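Why this split exists: single-chain examples teach little about how molecules sit against one another. For that reason, every record in the complexes split bundles all components of an assembly together and asks for one structure covering all of them. Below is a record exactly as it appears in the raw files.
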Amino acid sequence: MEEGRKKTIVKLIQVEKSFGQTDVVKKLSLEVGAGEFLTLLGPSGCGKTTTLRMIAGFEQANGGRIELEGVDVANLPPNARNVNTVFQNYALFPHMNVADNVAFGLVEKKVKKPEIKKRVSEMLRLVQLEGMEKRMPSELSGGQKQRVAIARALVNEPKVLLLDEPLGALDLKLRRQMQIELKHLQRRLGITFIYVTHDQEEALTMSDRIAVMNGGMLEQVGTPEEIYNHPRTRFVADFIGESNIMEGVVKETKQGDWQLYMDCGSVLLSQEEGCRPGELHYVCIRPEKLKVSAAPVEGFSIPVQVVEHVFIGSQIRTIVKTTDGKKYKISSPPDGTLLPAESQGFLYWKSGNAVLLPDDEQDGAPLEKGEDAFAIEGGEAGGSLV
Amino acid sequence: MGHLFKEKKKRSGGSRLSCIAMIGPVVVWMLLFLLVPLLYVICISFLSKNSYGGAGLPVTLQGYLGMLQSEYGRIFLQSLWLSGKTTLICLLFGYPFAWIIAHAPKKWKPFLLLLLMLPFWINSMIRIYGWITLLRSQGVVNQMLMAAGLIQKPLDILYTDGAVLFGMVYDLLPFTVLPIYTSIEKLDHSLVEAAQDLGAGKWHVFTRVILPQTMPGIFAGSIQTFIPSLGLFYISDMMGGAKTMYIGNLIKNQFLSARNWPLGAALSIVLILITLMLMRLYTKVGSLDDMV
């Protein structure tokens, strides 16, 4: 993978953090390469912000090591670390104007005044806030505040920029626009971004790699394509995008094939890898990959009833109901032919379009398959394809 | 329609009645006990003094002209100087004090605030008597110091300017602490983190972010200390032995011993004007703060 070529700039090794009795981050290991855009993605309370704050130095890890450029930073206070943070609520200094806010870090570094002025105005041009130097933060819109916060951090030329849900307070349209702008900015400057968000769409749009977190642990690390197409755990499949998840037990048939038996029917598996006979498995399949036909398809035996079609513009959303009463979602292009509502049909998918995951979440160690959380060995690192 | 209209009118009439019922007593109270006495004082300040106290016709400017004596100017300056010192010392002690309360563990905060407020429940003059008992030459402090062999003869603690300053600081410290506490409490902690993140050490975090952000509290605390300290007369009477004259004592004396009511009233009016000017400054800075 690419990490081999890139210099590692941030390295977390078995990092742990607990607040009182609650373990917030559990033995988390992660490497971030120079110039990389890495997103920590997860639901609220998954420990992603705490991880970011430990890198920034606002929180002390209870265990493990955090290295910045190969140096253990455990004893370095935030002001001695060559990283800068963009805060969720911007945290602009209300008593300073835009220029003074941006210049704050340079003044601390005792940069000479003409140099500060030059760099501040360059940075404000970069974030498209020219002429706003004398405005107070209270006179700025949300998007402008966000730009000041980014300029204030970037003007210090940090090795790593940490962003804690920086677009969370903006409306959808502005958020989309800022996502693209941030991504371009990051490419242009080549600074490592570690970005925290709970918005999976944002993560998919912006990241070079995504680290999906849940319950203080890493579920999966990979490129947006890997995460989306080859989720390694049921949580990832469910959290990133939409998924249909069916559960069943894998058994060997009389002919020696592997078959997944569910309450609503059965599927012949095309691959035996990653299956454990007799155990519970999950089939995860995206709505756009799931299909329904009037006649049975070879290898699939999942009878369904078409409940309804909903036209949502670019797509038609079909809801089907299996014999055990569970409902699944199908997305199809609006120009295709559809089985009428109330009619009977059979579910199927193209071989390789679904992911079969063993039920390993109860073990609490979904990452043990790949020994390093950050080493992604291509697509087969996830569950086997069905 | 007509019915609806009538009902609406009735309701608004009812609200006017309840409005009067609520505001009325306050207005009457303010009229009787604030406006009328104030007008009375203003009137007296323009009258001439009677030989046995009180004031009478003709209308003169004697009261105000009498203030032009250099002695009174000195007393005004002395009072401002004492109040300034009191305020400064209150700030120096009050800020860390407020900081400690604001950063104490959550379950301790109400208790610490209670300790701060507790003295208010006892009459200030009684508390000052308490200090006199402690500080006088045969008092607890001197006796303990002598018993410990640290001093041979009692120290003159009481009836000095230092004792007056101490009494003022003691009496007014809570007024300084409370507004500062509120503004420290309101301080957005992410601003502190942002400053640290941008490379500021502890001292710069304080001077560049915390201090400017808590300035409204410091200002409010200063005003709330400075203004009452100008008028406090019993502390200098009781703890200073009335050796040094301050505005408060001066005014009190004009009414009770010197029997020069117009002068006392004129001095009061000037003191009120100084106070109003300070209040004006306070609200100006206060509203500036809202803008930022």
